[in-house]
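Same chain as my last thread, 270 residues:
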Amino acid sequence: MATSSDRHRIRFTIHYDGRSFHGWQVQPDQRTVQGELERVLAKLTNGPAAVIGSGRTDRGVHATGQVAAADVPVRWTAQALRRAMNALLPEDVWVADAEPAAPFFHPRYDATSRSYVYRVGLASEADSPFRAPWCWPLVRPVDLLAMERATEMIVGDHSFRAFAKAGQEERGDRCTVTEARWAPWEGIGLEFHVTANRFLHHMVRYLVGTLVDVGLGQRPPEVMRALLAEDTELETSPPAPPEGLFLTGVAYPADAGMKPPRRRGPQLVP
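reply #2:
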């Protein structure tokens, strides 16, 4: 749906600390990120506001690169709206950027890939109250070489059915992972970086939980290949806790939103 003549579409980059939210999506009687954004926008625009995000994040999961969009009165420029929203939003949500969007831009359906980072704390400092809320404070040594061997198997087009809490029958369980790697995290531990065209429910957390078990010597690296087989009967390790997971970025084509969509889905204008 195109915006009306008195409204235009604004694209936001959102940061949030997920600890006190019941995820992104609006839920009755629960505090959510989408709910806070719509509450503030409704106040600023004197009417109902609909905010659409690039995807849901679960309870406790954070973001430094969530993308959202809303249609607002044309009197609001993107930067003026950003400043006003940040003045009213709670301290655990922040609009990092705002810019005019193409008239048919849709944060979810136009996305070509999403990127996540998961932090695993290995040093004792990970137990600090200034670190533990935003990582998995494992505080145990791991075999990084074994983890990297298993991680290499993730890249490519695979069935991730074993790594999903809930299936998506209409879309299947195949995902194309273009990046999966471990990197140092500030001398405290490790970061798992992963980018894919799509992710299944809890997929990153199941991947990290399994990879950490490989690093602890509880599973061999080759288990990853077996888990990615379409006909696998194996089970993953328990999922890593949500506190260490961050949505860090969403990619879009340069012409995203320039043409009317050939799809049905949530619209921006209420």
